[in-house]
Amino acid sequence: MKLCSGYSIRTKLTALILAVVSAIVLVLSGSSMAAIDGDLDSTFGSGGKVVTDFFGRSNGANAVALQADGKIVVVGNALSALGPPDFALARYNGDGSLDNSFGSGGRVTTDFGGRSDNASAVAIQPDGKILAAGGADLGGTQFDFALARYNSNGSLDSTFGSGGKVTTDFNGGLDAASAIALQTDGKIILAGFATAGDPHMALARYNPNGTLDGTFGGLAFGKVVTNINGTRDFANAVAIQSDGKIIAGGPTLTPLGSFVMFALARYNSNGALDPAFGNGGKVTTQVVSGDGADDEIFALAIQPDGRIIAAGEANFAHDFGMARYLTNGSLDTSFGTNGLVTTDFNGMSDNARSVAVQIDGKIVLAGAANLTTGSTGDFGIARYNPSGSLDATFGTGGKVITDFGGNVDIARGIVLQSDNRIVAAGSTISTPGTGEFAVARYLATAQPSDVLGRIVDPGGNPVEGVAIKMSGTQSRLTITDSQGNFRFANVAINGSYTVTPSRVNFTFSPALRSFIHSGTHTDASFTATLAATGLNPLDTSEYFGRQQYVDFLSREPDESGFTFWVNQIESCGVDANCREVRRINVSAAFFLSIELQQTGYLVYRTYKAAYGNIPGTPVPVWFSEFLTDTQQIGQGVVVGQTGWESTLENNKRTFMEAFVRRSRFAAAFPPGTSAAQYVDTINANAGGVLSSAERNQLVNDLISEAKTAGQVLRVVAEDQDLINSEFNRAFVLMQYFGYLRRNPNDPPEATLDFQGYNFWLTKLNQFNGNFVNAEMVKAFLTSTEYRQRFPR
């Protein structure tokens, strides 16, 4: 940086600070031209949509899952070239193209008994093998649970069941699986219905090799049937809690058969109903009371906090319906309206078939919208805030409708990619008997969250001033505070990051942390061990930068400002002369900053106007008074952050009104002091900065009560003539307050009589305020007293 006159340096530094603030404000308030959440993803298929045919006959998809490599697996059924429908699977690459390494051209079909088979659910094992579940027609009246496992190339896994296939009969009648879930121990749970007279909820659990698990269901050996209401009920969905308990959901007919309700059942790990849930392990819910409801659960999700989301179809009008339950089965009244939410798209029939919860807690439902009597319908997607209200940032008012060009399009499955994009799969039907797999992908984001941690020594004591660098998807820089804490706010989720701590004289365990940031927050804490004491941390740009915030602004640094000032120094590389000049200018910039001028320097001027200089001294305020009052005015103020101006203004008003109620002020201006005496005194203390007109106006304002004593004091303290006349004096005083944390006449001053203060003030005046040529800031920065404040 070129050195010039003191006024020019002051002007340039002030301009630089203003530029930084303006840039921060623009970043915080600027709008993005990016597509909104809910838009079709143009990088997927054709304009965000993919349609897949198998044999030129009717087929349709019922469920979708994601592999670890990002490939998309969709299952359903497909009519074979000559025969009835079979299990059908298709696998897609990330761009929506069929994956030719899977089956035949990305497609696989599986027949069980030569009759009708339908895959309703899919899951991907940790080893990459694919499970598809549904029902198989084995002839006569026997329609059974059907389960198949596939290798990653689409071939049946011969180590599973009989040649890769398993069927399970319950009571010799009509049985079918609608949902699948994987336990952490590799066991497989299917949920659906089993018929013996009326159909009822049915679950089966299998060992990893496909055999029924005899530890589940007691004497039923791997199978459980649950009668909810003594009528008819089904399980359309299943989910496993973190404690291993199993929840099944579907519809149940009321005892009188007048309407259908949401039904849930929770099971212990052995298949017994859990008495701690609802009424003996069962819960029923009418979503809309008294409307002849037709409420049916099609999907379940369990939030990280254990609350249960059930989604499907609700009320006589057939809308998206959703309920959220506490872990004991009672409705969560903080959600929607007493735990319930319904959503209509366009006044026609709608139903939700699948649910997913984003990492930020937002809830996505997928199903069908605009259904009529079988002739029209579209994919319907809705996103909700964690409270259950529609998310206005998604689509139009929280809803998206997608037409594939067919008469009826229905989304039956939904999954969230690691980049938060939404994949919905189902069917598109042009005319009866001509359905095809339909897949759409939508843009979506989840709210960024925090990466944070704490640095302590082996004794648990906090280590402040540790520089924390984050690299990877984002590159960020921050530093630990006085309690050893650090925080990166608004970190994009699902990114790959490495966090590395550094501070001279310390080693860290671990040396770094690498992770995928995929939760509400990621903890990245370290232990710091003092390994040496020979280096001064003040010589590092990060420690030095933080110290300016702490010493001059009485707060920890904000990340954006901190990074800017550190980069000002680091941009010099190894050029020692450049670094020295930058350190001087960065430090001086804190006195010139808007924040200090409006907080600390205002405190200085307030004391000057109220009392003049302290008797026998050239300064108006002591360090202890200055520090306390500056912290009060600066509380919560970070220039450039949203609302900083209003926070500062409120702080100023509060400070001024409290200041004039202090006992010292009351002694200086006792009762009976006239308005004219008051104004004349504070004007004289300030050096006669008011014009006659300004003085008379303030007197009149006090008399008429248009202004309070505090407001009049503030007018004088903020007078530009006072700001200009006291600038150099305050600049010198701030060197003592900031760097040395003491008064100019305190030990270890040699003479204790302001000789040092007067020396620097004379020199600064001699160079017309040019602190560089006066070498004032440099002298304080390099002083032994300052550097000895930082022993390790």
Describe this structure in words.
With 792 residues, the chain is an alpha+beta fold. The protein is 24% helix and 31% strand. The chain is built from 16 helices and 37 strands. The longest helix is centred in the N-terminal third of the chain and has 24 residues, at 6-29. The two termini are 31 Å apart.
What is the secondary structure topology, with strand pairs?
Blueprint: H1 6-29, E1 49-52, E2 59-66, E3 72-79, E4 85-92, E5 107-110, E6 117-124, E7 130-137, E8 143-150, E9 165-168, E10 175-182, E11 188-196, E12 198-206, E13 223-226, E14 237-240, E15 246-253, E16 260-267, E17 282-285, E18 296-302, E19 308-314, E20 319-325, E21 340-343, E22 349-357, E23 363-371, E24 378-384, E25 399-402, E26 408-416, E27 422-429, E28 435-442, E29 449-456, E30 467-472, E31 476-479, E32 485-491, E33 495-502, E34 506-509, E35 513-517, E36 521-523, E37 526-530, H2 541-553, H3 559-570, H4 576-592, H5 594-598, H6 600-611, H7 623-633, H8 644-659, H9 663-668, H10 675-685, H11 692-703, H12 709-717, H13 720-740, H14 755-766, H15 776-782, H16 784-787
Parallel strand pairs: 29-36, 29-37
Antiparallel strand pairs: 1-28, 2-3, 3-4, 4-5, 6-7, 7-8, 8-9, 10-11, 11-12, 12-13, 14-15, 15-16, 16-17, 18-19, 19-20, 20-21, 22-23, 23-24, 24-25, 26-27, 27-28, 29-32, 30-31, 30-33, 33-35, 34-37
Helix pairs in contact: 1-4, 2-3, 2-4, 3-4, 6-7, 6-10, 6-12, 8-12, 10-11, 10-12, 13-14, 13-15
